[in-house]
Amino acid sequence: MILLTFASSLPQKFIMKKMKVDMNNSQIISNQWRNNQVFVKIAICLILIGFAFRFYFSSSIQISGFIDGDDDGKLPSPQQLVVANFTLSDQSPVNNNRTHEGSTECDVFTGEWIRDATGPRYTNHTCNTIEPHQNCMKNGRPDSDYLYWRWSPTDCNLPPFDPKIFLNFMKNKSMAFIGDSISRNHVQSLLCILSQIEEADEVYHDEEYRSKKWFFKSHNFTLSVIWSPFLTKANIYEDNDGHSMGPIELHLDELDLIWANQFDDYNHIMIAGGKWFMKTAIYYENATIIGCHNCKNENISEIEFEYAYRKSLRTVFDFFTKSNRKVNVLFRSITPDHFENGEWNTGGYCNRTGPFKDGEIDVRDVDMIMRDVELEEFENAKQVIKGLGLRLFDTTRLSLLRPDGHPGPYRVFHPFDGKETDLKVQNDCLHWCLPGPIDWWNDIMMNLLLSG
Ligand SMILES: *[C@@H]1O[C@H](CO)[C@@H](O)[C@H](O)[C@H]1NC(C)=O
Ligand SMILES: *[C@@H]1O[C@H](CO)[C@@H](O)[C@H](O)[C@H]1NC(C)=O
Ligand SMILES: *[C@@H]1O[C@H](CO)[C@@H](O)[C@H](O)[C@H]1NC(C)=O
Ligand SMILES: *[C@@H]1O[C@H](CO)[C@@H](O)[C@H](O)[C@H]1NC(C)=O
Ligand SMILES: *[C@@H]1O[C@H](CO)[C@@H](O)[C@H](O)[C@H]1NC(C)=O
Ligand SMILES: *[C@@H]1O[C@H](CO)[C@@H](O)[C@H](O)[C@H]1NC(C)=O
Ligand SMILES: *[C@@H]1O[C@H](CO)[C@@H](O)[C@H](O)[C@H]1NC(C)=O
Ligand SMILES: *[C@@H]1O[C@H](CO)[C@@H](O)[C@H](O)[C@H]1NC(C)=O
Predict the structure, then answer these.
(1) Most CB contacts within 10 A, which of 67, 115, 240, 417?
(2) What pLDDT, in 10s, does the model give residues 146-166?
């Protein structure tokens, strides 16, 4: 083990960090990079930053507790609209030939946002299922430039999402989105685009409207979103407004059965972890407390969230690698937020009206840490995977370039109406407006699904 120091490249956030670096891991990285183009880029990136790590971080990493205490995953129920505190309520593929392991496939995740006068594929009028928190136009967002950009990969042409082709591809099949409210955000976008061809019937929702299921009758296609913010077993103690009533109990080595029990029902899976791991939580392994993140309890040792994230992802990937099912799994990487000059609970805002260009912004510390854990665990799983198809849905970078795509104050209906102008309204700089940049995740998803 050696100690390295590196600085985050985000201008306001020059936070020096000390990290313990496991040299064995660098070895693994150098062995793997020949096999995978994507990973080569990441490896180079890692080397450039002079930064690699394995299991343990020194406790000196300063991570803002920005997600702690909020309530990602909560249904935007009517009462939530008045909660003052920010709530994280939470075929024409490029190459028609199937690509095999090791063959070169266009990297659809590297590119830029280019102006496109076409505009969104749905509006608040044509899609009636946009959740209030993300219905920016309806909520009175004044600018609309953010709707006129298209994701354009550098090395290939990304064919536009075609709902007809997608639904035909999904005939007699089922797909589940598993994760937190960002996954629900994504599925909402998909529903809106698909509604041009077929309006889905909602056939299930849980009590809190966090997990839902839709059925497309004329295509015999079942679409689900399954709320599982940690993917592993978690006891979450929050009231209906998302206020914490005690630390989360997170079992790092046990799957969340809410999705694992119905895993066999699906042909396609889009799964993601995320920012819930930054919350205060007691960590368990073998049903025994191993430590706690952020508990400030002298009787339980502090464990950094990245340990928990890695352990939980490993539990998930272990499940995948042992599966012989012919199921397509897309593993989505972390979604960056764009709070500026503060965090979600300290007046941070996101009022930009256009995308960043490559080089204008860097993935910030916390997201970088999570993404690196994701990429490493994904790569480890890829080495031993059997029947199941596992691919990376690496939307971190392309999403990072869209600070303009969040609701900001327009997470609620006309936030400034009837209020003193200096009254602070809560901003959402994490979820995405619908329509908005997240719609393009579907173009990329379709491209990946149809290319095999
Ligand atoms: C908002 O959060 C603050 C602390 O972050 C808390 O004191 C306050 O009670 C919260 N207000 C509501 C309405 O939840
Ligand atoms: C697909 O593969 C076939 C034979 O393997 C080849 O002739 C054809 O050019 C390929 N098409 C594309 C688009 O790569
Ligand atoms: C819906 O969206 C349009 C723009 O597409 C906007 O002009 C309108 O105000 C929005 N609101 C409602 C309630 O439809
Ligand atoms: C869907 O299932 C029905 C009934 O089993 C079958 O007749 C049909 O061919 C299937 N369609 C596709 C595209 O698999
Ligand atoms: C619908 O799809 C399922 C497989 O997912 C198949 O068993 C069933 O026969 C299909 N039904 C019809 C009416 O095509
Ligand atoms: C949990 O149990 C396994 C096997 O029984 C053991 O290898 C592992 O070290 C245990 N983990 C902890 C944190 O006690
Ligand atoms: C830690 O344990 C001691 C002894 O059991 C107890 O007196 C103390 O209240 C505990 N501290 C906390 C914060 O739980
Ligand atoms: C964003 O808000 C800040 C602070 O209120 C302001 O200084 C800045 O000019 C705003 N930028 C845009 C593009 O509106």
Answers:
(1) 67
(2) 999 999 999 989 999 999 999
